[in-house]
UniProtKB/TrEMBL annotation:
It comes from the Eukaryota. It comes from Rhizophlyctis rosea. PANTHER family: BTB/POZ DOMAIN-CONTAINING PROTEIN, BTB_POZ DOMAIN-CONTAINING PROTEIN 2. This is BTB domain-containing protein. SUPFAM superfamilies: POZ domain.
């Protein structure tokens, strides 16, 4: 239970509809408290909701917001921000996630995004608060934006290998050495990922993400045969991974495809 002030809650369009009538007259809450029906939504976490409610008291870009929303929890706060229809907070979470994209975080973000993706069936995502509740609309929009950024980042890593493979062979193992116009060595930058690293990355990703990256039009392949060869190498690397360490997302996807196939078989039998 949270003890909050109505004047603060009114900043949220979601709470404003609960506390005001259609003529913008303040409603009297007889029980003295509001109950939120979000317990069955696995996207809404206790931490995410607490941070979102606390943010209502100071919605500007202060030290409190900067310290409470981190690359570790931003993806957990984002659904709660969408549930309360806090666009500014959702935008801040999105910015935090974009700034945190790296080789070390990209796999965790991809897996987490799959776990909290919007439902495929719109009826399954219907809000108990009616059609005016923009939770799923906002969540679908922001989830899509983060998803696009992750795909673009992954594509950039693969393109870095495809475009700089020859260059990376001639320099040191750890750094790409560049020389400026004055003849001095520039600050070393991270070298492009080699094929073994790319294969390892695409092996640990859920299969759905691998498909998105390898089928993307932004992938810098010389031709479709080169894309085919890359797909074959990645597929071979994924098959070599022991089943016990494969991503749970892959197993869930396989189960989903199995159910879909069974459903198609039943439909064909019923038509026959």
């Amino acid at each position: 239970m949270y003890h909050l002030h109505k004047v603060v809650l009114m900043q949220s369009p979601f709470f404003a509809r609960m506390l005001l009538s259609e003529t913008n007259q303040e409603l009297i809450i007889v029980e003295g408290f509001l109950s939120l029906e979000c317990a069955n939504d696995h996207r809404i976490t206790k931490e995410g909701m607490e941070i979102s409610l606390r943010d209502l008291y100071d919605p500007t870009l202060t030290l409190q917001r900067l310290s409470s929303i981190t690359p570790t929890n931003a993806l957990s706060v984002l659904p709660s921000a969408c549930f309360l229809e806090l666009s500014d907070l959702a935008s801040h979470c999105h910015s935090v996630l974009l700034s945190a994209l790296s080789r070390s975080t990209i796999v965790d973000y991809a897996i987490h995004l799959d776990q909290i993706r919007p439902p495929r069936n719109q009826k399954a995502g219907a809000s108990p608060y009616g059609v005016r509740h923009r939770y799923m609309d906002m969540w679908g929009e922001w989830h899509g934006k983060v998803e696009e950024a992750v795909v673009a980042f992954l594509g950039g890593l693969v393109n870095g290998y495809l475009g700089d493979e020859e260059k990376s062979r001639d320099v040191g193992e750890d750094d790409v050495v560049e020389v400026g116009e004055d003849g001095r060595e520039k600050t070393p930058t991270a070298r492009p990922m080699g094929l073994p690293e790319i294969e390892k990355l695409l092996t640990t990703l859920p299969l759905l993400w691998v498909r998105r990256v390898l089928e993307s039009d932004t992938l810098c392949v010389a031709n479709e045969f080169a894309r085919y060869e890359l797909i074959k190498r990645v597929a071979k690397a994924r098959r070599s991974v022991p089943r016990c360490v494969k991503s749970e997302i892959d197993l869930e996807e396989a189960e989903y495809e199995k159910r879909a196939t069974a459903r198609k078989v039943r439909e064909r039998l019923s038509l026959g």
